[in-house]
Amino acid sequence: MVNNEEEFIKPEKREFIVGLAGLLDESGAKMSVPMLAELLNFNEYFTESGEMYDGKRGTYHLIRSIFDQLKAEKRDDEAGMVATVFVKPDGELAWSD
Questions:
Q1: What is the CA radius of gyration of the chain?
Q2: Tens of pLDDT along 6-38?
Q3: Distance, CA of 20 to CA of 14 (rounded, Å)
Q4: Containing H/E element for 47?
Q5: CB hemisphere CA count around 43 (13 angstroms)
Q6: Is the per-residue pLDDT at 47 higher than 80?
């Protein structure tokens, strides 16, 4: 499995994650990053090199890249959801600025 994600993120994968973040936020739920990786793999959203996500560094980088893209597009509410609903296995935020 690959642990790094290239900066280019296919729009379908990005919007899948943004939509999932919205559903989780709406219901007050969280999802661990390893669980997100499993869901991405199950739905055949792989890394740009075609590898499966392993729920480690590359998956965290993917979330951060999507956050950055959303902020750049002034989609602040969605960026905030992405930043807060995907968490480490211990429930802590996956990353912070």
A1: 12
A2: 367 999 999 999 999 999 999 999 999 999 999
A3: 10
A4: none
A5: 13
A6: yes
